[in-house]
Write a structure and sequence with these properties.
One of its GO terms (molecular function) is homoserine O-acetyltransferase activity. InterPro entries: AB_hydrolase_1 (IPR000073), AB_hydrolase_fold (IPR029058), HAT_MetX-like (IPR008220). This protein is α/β, with parallel strands linked by helices. The protein contains 12 helices and 13 strands. A hairpin with a 5-residue loop joins β2 and β3.
Amino acid sequence: MSLKKFIHTDLFYLESGKKLPALEIAYHTFGNRSTYKNNIVWVCHALTANSDVIDWWPGLFGEKAIFNPEEHFIICANIVGSAYGTTNPLSIDAKNDEPYYLSFPEITIRDMVKAHQLLAAHLKIDQIDVLIGGSLGGQQALEWAVSEPEKINQLIILASNARHSPWGIAFNESQRLCLTADPTFYKSQPNGGNAGLKAARSLALLSYRSYKTYAVTQSEDDLQKKGSFNAASYQNYQGQKLVNRFNAYSYWYLTKAMDSHNVARNRVSLENALGRVKARSLIIAIASDILFPPEEQRFLSRHIPDASFAEVESLFGHDGFLIETEALSKIIKSFLIQQVTEKLTTPFRTA
């Protein structure tokens, strides 16, 4: 399915009080709505993903997957600030006909959700049968379920949290220090900060994986080796891979947005905010996740009314929510086929 665009021509007011003169939202849809419009699956994507969910989440989405275009109407919208078609720092500022770069206003998770809500209204979607997201995508999905509890029927959160942690913010700030250490970041050019972006991605990978991941996937057989190590090559490769498809300015703003995540803001407390969720909810943790550790998902499952909890064993740390699709499919299928009045009482464990 090809990329689609929705243009919101009115002012788009941000949580900060600043505004964008208009908003362009890139999105994909797959499949068709059922007669009763009860097959809508909305996906909120993570930090550097795009709206083509079948491309980046294979095994969970696609033909013969648990979420497939034959049975479901699948929607995924590119988030505000991202590099894949939605208004972002490289978009043209109407004030001077130049890209925004660092004059782009700071955005929050709530701003991203507000954009999703505008697109949903444009598509005449009043009810979402399944709202799903992992990591930063999970933060969006949770915020949406809190802000419009009547519109979400079933909520699936993977490897995410109710409020971004000091640990997560520290990782993001360290990545932004990489960006700003590259002097080209301040030169307002499309490839500005690319060397910093490469370093930032290399640092981020250490939070996405773990000691054990690298021990298994980047081990060395040559006992005499003194350089050109697999782990070093891997870091360089992954850093450059992101540079080839993203930009440093979007990365800067999106990590800031992730830091802003806090469903308790203007809602008394985390517990109060989570108590607003009315959707049947499934919270999934990755046991080896050091960036969003399982204790954060357990907190969600304790305070979202009647939420179900599942934990998946994985070698791949935080990235397990993208990789362990076979185990995730089993858990999600079990959750979806249960009667609304049932509740999962035993956490899943999948090796």
